[in-house]
Please model this.
Amino acid sequence: MGGKYWTPDHPVLRVLDARRSRKDRPGRREDPHKVGLAIQGGGMRGVISGAMLTALDDLGLHDTFDAIYGSSSGALNGAYSYAGDSWRQLPIYWDDLTTGHFIDLRRGFSGNIVDLDYAFDEVVGKLRPLDADAVLRSEIPLHVAISLVDEIRTHTVSSFSSAEDLRLALRASAWLPVAVRGTAEFHGQRAIDGAILTTHPVRLAEDDGCTHILSLSTRPLGPGRVTPSLVQLVSGWHLDRIRPGLSKAYHLAIRGYQRDRARLSVASRTANGPPHILDIAPLPDALPIRPLEQDPGRLILAARSAYELAHCVLDHGDVDALRAGAFRTVPRFTRVNRGERS
Model:
């Protein structure tokens, strides 16, 4: 299966396969394990983890998890998936979010580069409405990570009083500094993107006691940057303007994430644990996607590649054969009744 990246008999795969075969349900498991699904976001890079979720659904693994963890677009992907809408949601990235309604770099000096009102009120609320009630009824809890500004800590929300409460949590978790001015408000506290202080939600799953974790990552495999990028430096300066000390915590989180990448890579090739962690991430030569990507074609290609990869890994396929073009997938078309654009 391409053991350079993933072991073919990984403990996470064994548990998922067994649960799928038994068709056991959340809360009525026949094993003692707690299996978590950690979904990374990253703005428009969320198209990658969104496509991986569609593969997971198509393989019948939807109900094999005990909890879901995510922030930013990863949390939104998780909400749509566990409302039964993973395929319906995926085209949001290339159909609805590549327009000037959502991202407009020219607004950098006069307003928000990213318009979250459009994303949540128009797209999530009307064009492709999220079935929030289905998320609230789900036996598999959704844990949404939010960064609390004044306390400089990650707050994980897993209990929602209403559909509006869920929407506010998802919106706060997607509040990306620099791209969106100011801060969101959640339960009377200032909040921003959950990935600012917890870059990858796999840590949330570990802290919550998961024994087995399937991680869906949106950054390609590899060591990543050692020194902060210009964007990260600018983001740090901006964060300190919001709350002194926030930049230091942000850069500590980035360094921690670099260590996590190496740790996830080792965990995916071995049976070390618990917790046992299998991280599915784009291959090193994958098409790069920016957090504010606006090219629909690149997003569609990234989604196709991510779906193929996740399907291959989860179905015990040969990644080397996949890279050689042994099989491909075709887009799945799904009817969507669209609301009126304002």
